[in-house]
Amino acid sequence: MSTFVRRALESDARFVVSSRVSTSRNAATVAGQPPTALADLDAFALVIVGAPDLMTPADADGLERFMHDRGGVVLLLMDAATENAAVDRLTGVTRWTRANRPEPSGVPLASEFQVPAELPRWAEPMAFARGGSPTSVVPVWQTPIGRGRLIVSGALDAWRYRDVAFDQFWKALAADATTEVSEEKPEQRSGVTEDTEALLRAWTSSHHGSSLAESDLAELAPALSRTLAAPVESTPLHPMRSAWWIIPFAGLLGFEWWDRRKNGRR
């Protein structure tokens, strides 16, 4: 799958494609300027991963950092039924289902599918991957991870039915993914703009709160402890206003009457 998707993107002038294909443990075919390690992905907006059955925990860690910290997009292309703990951890899927159909269906066309038995929380089918009948399989889905997102294609044999529609589908998906990342401004990557930060500070101050910059995170724990501590309240007590005082008062009156009678006083 990754080979034919790469070829589709290479034919489009909007994309600058670099690739590394590991043909064996110590040999690889390189095109363009691919990164030497998954830690060097800052120059890329979209990473396409093939052969996920060979993914290692270290691979999953690198891809997760790319999405979470860089805000990049990872496209995971399955081309065979896969059972891999690193893939399960990266996608958040605990159980997969597989289906074979006599005729190709869906978008892109495929007859073999591997899809989650239940989509992970926050995941959703790709909008332009919907097609066919309402009950047809939607093999391409996405889920946010940090500032980025993960797109998973479970159309295992879509490469068998490649045509103009196949190329157009992956070009449109890649354009959507890379445009979203490239148009993100640096000040937006921090989460808020300077104007928004000023509004947040004003709002929190008006509600007797406080705001902390990222450089002051060490002060967060003490601030939370002070805020979440049980409030000390002073409650005035008026014991002499209690109706129970009638009991000791009646007892004292009775004792005084007894004492006066005992000593002959009236």
Largest sheet: 5 strands, mixed
The count of β-strands is 9
Using the coordinates shown, work out and report the CATH topology of the domain at 2-187: Rossmann fold
Question: What is the ordering of alpha helices and beta strands?
Answer: HEEEHEHEEEEEHHHHH
Chart the SSEs and their pairings.
Elements: H1 2-10, E1 19-24, E2 27-31, E3 46-49, H2 57-70, E4 73-77, H3 85-91, E5 96-105, E6 110-116, E7 124-125, E8 140-145, E9 148-153, H4 164-182, H5 186-189, H6 194-206, H7 220-228, H8 246-262
Parallel strand pairs: 3-4, 4-9
Antiparallel strand pairs: 1-2, 5-6, 7-8, 8-9
Please supply descriptive tags for the structure shown above.
alpha/beta, 266 residues, 9 strands, two-stranded antiparallel ribbon, 5-stranded mixed beta sheet, single chain, 8 helices, Rossmann fold
Explain this structure:
The protein is an alpha/beta fold and 266 residues long. The protein has a domain at 2-187: Rossmann fold. 35% of the residues lie in helices and 19% in strands. It has eight helices and nine strands. The chain has helices at residues 2-10, 57-70, 85-91, 164-182, 186-189, 194-206, 220-228, 246-262; strands at 19-24, 27-31, 46-49, 73-77, 96-105, 110-116, 124-125, 140-145, 148-153. The strands form three sheets. The protein has a five-stranded mixed beta sheet. The chain has a two-stranded antiparallel ribbon with strand order 1-2. Strand 5 and strand 6 form a beta hairpin. It is elongated. The chain starts with a helix and ends with a helix. Mean pLDDT is 82; it is low at 185-192.
